[in-house]
Design a protein that fits this description.
By secondary structure, the protein is of the alpha/beta class. It has 10 helices and 12 strands.
Length: 305
């Protein structure tokens, strides 16, 4: 039986999204189109691949047996596409970069403006999320990750680190100092003295919240959000403090809080699929970003200009 990549891709999108509507959104198709494709595929196979319910579409046992093969097809489709694109003569078109929210806002977005001035034929699409993006499958062309990759199909292009501190608005820092003086406290600020701004559900696992939860008994953020920009806005407004890259905090006019511990240095790695290095537009963007990320790491104020 000949199962096309379109069929496998449709099945996989619905399986990963957990619903017909979610799969349609991932594919950029209408929900009726995806429903029809799934129904035709099930009729050809003679088995139900999903159990429909109000909550979505759950993969059946028969569907789970097909899922690993569909995932492998997705990885090979990504590889085929990259190798084919390697024959392109010019570095033009769209390059998708997956990046954590903080780096997306403070590094990648400013870089995008500079890149388009230097190379008008290129466009960047930034996938700003804490979720893992599969580069081998082609969910993005490049990724900036906090952990170095050990996947054989991937390559780390450059690595670096950014200096992190605890920052808040000047008004908040002044109020914190007055409160500590009234209580007769001096020296470095203890973690439990700070009104923390942190990630909310479903991202409680995103640093630094797990570290704060381990260090502070019954830890409860003074303010939390599932959006990095909302958290940062709360810090600027004086709601509390958060851990930020030094350069970013300085640009926002935030003040450092001298805490009782040294905040961990944030590591970052620019990663791509090995075959993506043969695609002219990806290679150009990767080299260009690598150079400026190294400059940013060393505190060059012109790196993002």
């Amino acid at each position: 039986m000949d199962i096309s990549w379109d069929d496998a891709q449709t099945f996989l999108a619905v399986a990963e999204a957990g619903s017909i509507s979610g799969g349609a959104k991932r594919l950029g198709l209408g929900q009726p189109t995806v429903s029809r494709r799934i129904a035709l595929l099930e009729a050809r196979l003679g088995v139900a691949l999903f159990r429909r319910a109000q909550q979505g579409a759950r993969v059946t046992e028969a569907g789970e047996r097909l899922r690993p093969a569909a995932e492998q097809m997705a990885r090979w489709a990504g590889e085929f596409s990259r190798l084919a694109e390697g024959a392109e003569p010019d570095a033009r078109g769209l390059v998708r970069i997956a990046s954590p929210p903080a780096l997306s806002v403070d590094v990648v977005a400013p870089l995008a403006a500079r890149l388009q001035r230097d190379h008008p034929g290129l466009r960047l699409e930034v996938l700003s999320s804490v979720a893992h993006v599969d580069l081998v499958r082609g969910d993005a062309d490049l990724a900036i990750r906090a952990r170095e990759t050990h996947e054989p199909e991937l390559e780390t292009l450059t690595s670096g680190e950014s200096r992190v501190g605890v920052f808040a608005s000047r008004d908040y820092v002044d109020a914190l100092e007055r409160r500590r003086a009234q209580d007769g406290r001096s020296g470095p600020v203890r973690l439990e003295e700070i009104d923390w701004i942190a990630w909310s559900r479903p991202f409680e696992h995103v640093p630094p919240r797990p570290m704060l939860a381990r260090a502070i008994a019954d830890f409860t953020p003074a303010f939390s959000s599932d959006d990095f920009l909302v958290q940062r806005s709360a810090a600027v407004a004086g709601l509390g403090a958060m851990m930020l890259d030094e350069q970013s905090a300085t640009r926002l006019g935030l003040s450092r809080i001298d805490v009782e511990f040294a905040p961990p240095t944030t590591r970052f790695h620019l990663v791509c699929a090995k075959s993506a290095r043969f695609v002219p537009r990806i290679r150009l963007v990767a080299d260009w970003i690598s150079e400026r990320m190294r400059a940013f790491e060393h505190g060059d104020p012109a790196a993002l200009d």
